[in-house]
Known about the structure:
Order of helices and strands: EHHEEEEHEEEH
Oligomer: single chain
Shape: elongated
Amino acid sequence: MSTAPAYRERLSVPLRWWAQAVMMIATIWLAVAVAAPLWVASLVALGFLALVAVWFLGYGSPRVEVADGVLTAGRARLPLAYVGSVDALDAEDTRRVAGRDADARAYLLLRPYRKKAVMVRLADPRDPTPYWLVSTRRPEQLASALTAAVADGVASA
C-alpha cells in the first residue's frame, strides 16, 4: 500500500537558465538572419530551442522523495533501514563535502544551481558507499523527513 510521500522535490532547472537560453537562441537567430533568409534563421532557432528544451527537461528531471520506506534520489533507491545519520548542509558545507573532503565511493546527485544538500550516511556495513550527497532546495525539511521516517520505521519494527 502506497502512502503519501513525507518529502518530494524535483530538481528542475531554474527559470534564469531558461531565460539565458532564450537570449542565446535569439542571438543565434539574429546571426543567421543576417546571412540567410528569415525562414532558415527561424528553423535554426527552433532546432536549438528544441535541443535546449530536451536537455534542460532531462537534466532537471531527477526527483528526491521519501516515501514507502525508501529514499529515492534520481534513479537510485535506498531503503530507510540502511539510513544512518542525516545532515542538512549549507552551501559552504556542500561545496566542501563535494570537493575537498569528497569520498570517491559516495553516491552524488548534485546540481550546480542547488547550492545546498543533504548528506545521508549509510548504516549498511556491506555497502561500499559511505554516504549519499543529494542536492535540495530545502535541506532542513528533507533531513527532518528522513529522520522522522527512519524513526517511524524503527518504532514500527
